[in-house]
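Handout, section B. The chain below has 195 residues.
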Amino acid sequence: MTLIPVEYHGVHVVGPEHFTCVLLRWAEQNRIVPVWIGPLAAAELDARDNGFSPRRPGSSELLLDVINRSSGGVAAINIISHFEGVFIASIVLSDGEEIDARPSDAFLLARALEMEIQVEEDVLNQASFFMADDIAEEYFGLRFGDEVEAASASGDAQADADFEQMMRSLGMSEADFGGEDDTDVTKDDNGEKDV
């Protein structure tokens, strides 16, 4: 079994039916996994994500307290199976024992413990799909590509620096690639601007 860490991107309401799902992102493949959860679990998870803290222990706090007292804590939170739209989660205890769980309960524990969620690679291959960055931003308010684009054009800063150095050694500069505003201006053979 190969487990891959995924990014948690919160609870979202989808479509005119107002179905609720948690969006997970397989970053290295830029693929999204929607995990559909019930409206009550979605409301609790969304409230927790937005800083709500109950006065008395809820079911997730109770479960966490029992786990900590009996086994020494949680080692991992995984999504291990997917069949006909139903996901199966597993809470792995410090002693290696695994507890079967609903994904919504696993997400609540992961958020409470600030732990990453891992998904079995076969599940990712079956249940994930590519979503263009503009669609993710338009429908879900999610932006994924900014950190890569800000760091480098290709995603590999060293390769970009090597390419820039090679182009400069050939006598090219930023201006040769449209770095100057040359609207309605062309250069003649001597490099003089003609209007």
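Note. The beta strands are 3-14, 19-26, 31-37, 74-83, 86-93, 98-101, 117-120, 129-130, 186-187, 193-194. Compare this with the example in section A.
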